[in-house]
């Protein structure tokens, strides 16, 4: 008779072996190894809390230094930008904006704030969206107005199922 638990025991053994060797190996002999003797290894134990703390402190120092360097660079850039826009520089003119500069249409160039540009972009997007939705509705439904019926004379008689009556006020 064969043992029905044999495969389960082998699976457990493989699982335990993986867990046992998960941290790697360590040498069991602390003296110089003779190449003629078999090399004995033992599973390595988990690292102690002191080792974890030392590694964390080492890494934290590097992270803090990198964060401090990034913040210092950012603060330097901000100070530089603020000092260049100070009132002491009002007498100096920027070379990029020349007085009397005209665009091709004969209109004078002007500086637009971000709010104006954003509101213009939003209103343009609204108009495009409304046109798109209207075109979609027109393609979906056949529009019949009272003027079309009067112009053609009597129009035509349609079945009730051909059209869906949509009130102008409900749209």
Describe, in plain words, how this protein is organized in 3D.
The protein is elongated and about 110 Å long. By secondary structure, the chain is mainly α. It has 4 helices and 2 strands; from the N terminus they run H-E-E-H-H-H.
Note the gap between the termini. 83 Å
Which structural category do the helix and sheet elements fall into? mainly alpha
Rg from alpha-carbon coordinates: 41 Å
Average pLDDT, all residues:
73
The largest pleated sheet is described as: 2 strands, antiparallel
Q: Helix fraction? A: 40-55%
How many individual helices?
Answer: 4
Strand order of the largest sheet: 1-2
Low-confidence stretches: none
| Beta content | under 5%
Strand/helix succession:
HEEHHH
Compute the number of strand runs.
2
Query: Outline, from the CA principal axes?
Result: elongated
Question: What is shown here, in short?
Answer:
It contains 4 helices and 2 strands, in the order αββααα.
Walk me through the topology:
Layout: H1 6-20, E1 25-27, E2 41-43, H2 49-84, H3 114-140, H4 146-152
Antiparallel strand pairs: 1-2
Task: List descriptors.
two-stranded antiparallel sheet
